[in-house]
Amino acid sequence: MSRVTKISAAAVSLAVLAVAGTAVAEANRGNDNDWPYAQHSPAVYTLAAVGDIACEPDDEENAGTPTALKCGSPTLGGMSAEFATAKQATDMRPDAVALLGDEQYQVGKLTDFEQSFDQAWGGLKMLERPAPGNHEYYSYAKKGDNEAGQNGTGYFSYFNGHNQSGSPTTQGQAGDDTADNQGWYSYNLGNWHIVSLNAECDSDEFKHDCSTTDDGLLAQETQWLSKDLAVNTRPCTIAYWHQPTFSATTASTATVPASAPGAGGVEGAAADAWWKLLYQHRATLILNGHEHAYARLRPMNPAGQSDPTHGIPEFVIGSGGEALDTLAGTPGNWANPNVVTAQASAFGVMKLTLKSHGYSWDYQPALAGPGFDSTALQYSDTGSGTCK
Hints:
Layout: H1 3-27, E1 45-50, H2 78-91, E2 96-100, H3 110-121, E3 128-131, H4 134-137, H5 153-160, E4 177-178, E5 181-182, E6 185-189, E7 192-196, H6 217-231, E8 236-240, H7 266-270, H8 272-280, E9 285-288, E10 294-300, E11 312-317, E12 329-330, E13 333-334, E14 339-343, E15 346-354, E16 358-368, E17 381-386
């Protein structure tokens, strides 16, 4: 069986599950406590979205990690932040949870997932549809730390399950974990087609090959995306991956202007090809993490130019709890002129309400960040849009 056929079968399976969930909802009509199968309009779904979530646990296995990088550090959100965002997401009663990468710091070991991420977010596990981030793949050798990269092993072991010896299951809710597929997949919610992608091309697993046009793993992923979008028949499309192609913070703009394709580093530059495909197929939204902030960018074309008619809005939602970055610019004078609104003083999750031919978003902070007071919780960003 070809890989494309196998992925299509997986997508069909998820669609069947969605239909089954709707059927259960109808069977449970009148029960006020039956979430996640609660009665709702079959044409309206709730998607919670966030990335950059869990601090590294302060346990014996991480004894060599500097204290400033672990749960309990006064400069991190810590356990209180990830519990706050997990509760916020749970209170949304979502139909699915889009996780935008860096679910677990610093290198995403399975034991770290179990001792930190799972403690707060484990109750939502079967609704979670993750994408990996650099901290799930790359080594970490900054700020006095020196931890080997996991190349997705802990990530897949946690989300897909593993055998008794700890080897990841090759298929599951995080997509395939095989030599020719590192966890890219798609699923459907009503009229919405949703695509989760793996941008971690500068890893050993991808052979440090970030080309989208050769015969490497990222090129194979890009070819899969092209075919997936071509056969999609739903009118609304969301795609998400970790590193944003266009930036809102100072973390990604050392060599590339915030509004230029590739501000997110080699991964963001590689995803320029994805933007072109998504733009060609009239995608509705792009979601990213990596930058520890919340930002909404106006509809853009793949060159990063404002395009109100056919452009795709980009949401950066890297405010899941681990830490906060610094925004590039100030309100009304953002380094990226396409940034409409942004905040990096609190942690929070975005609620997307997905309707038949449109959507609404609602971002509210859940917990003020280190060094910020309760005024940080006064921020909000809400609005609505239509599918193209």
